[in-house]
Design goal:
The chain is α+β, with helices and mostly antiparallel strands and 152 residues long. It has 4 helices and 9 strands. The longest helix is centred in the N-terminal third of the chain and has 20 residues. About 14% of the residues have low confidence.
């Protein structure tokens, strides 16, 4: 009886451990007020802020370095590089999701690149533009569907 209970316990423990090791598709809940690019950047038409999506940060994993390639006052075009990020897995260029004049740059990201992992739609905004004109973007429902299609 004791041996059978241990076997059952060991089997459940192995099952629970294996469940945590199997990577499940991430639930994507992009904020509805933002616009999204196919290269996984977001744009907030209300504030002019832009950054990378939760999906992008999850694919990159632990982000350890951010270099912003633009500065306040610069004019940018949608699709042009605005930043470079490096993680423990990969490096990536981040592209502008809108065109316009840069009104603010989040210089604090260089000191705390992990903010991109913990709060990609909030504190981890990269730049803000005045009168931003969105590039080739989609709404949150279309972006969520696009992310789900890539997961399969």
């Amino acid at each position: 009886m004791q041996l059978q209970r241990r076997a059952n316990y060991s089997g459940r423990l192995l099952h629970l451990t294996a469940k945590h090791l199997i990577r499940r598709p991430q639930t994507i809940n992009p904020p509805a007020n933002l616009k999204y690019t196919k290269s996984d950047e977001w744009f907030d038409p209300a504030t002019g802020a832009m950054g990378i999506t939760d999906y992008a940060q999850s694919q990159l994993s632990d982000i350890v370095f951010v270099e912003l390639l633009v500065d306040e006052g610069d004019m940018i075009e949608a699709g042009k590089p605005i930043a470079s990020v490096e993680s423990v897995k990969a490096s990536a260029e981040i592209y502008a999701s809108a065109s316009g004049k840069i009104s603010a740059v989040n210089k604090g990201l260089s000191d705390k690149p992990e903010t991109l992992n913990s709060d990609p739609f909030g504190e981890a905004w990269m730049i803000k533009v005045e009168g931003g004109s969105a590039g080739d973007v989609m709404d949150s429902a279309a972006y969520e569907k696009y992310c789900e299609e890539r997961a399969h």
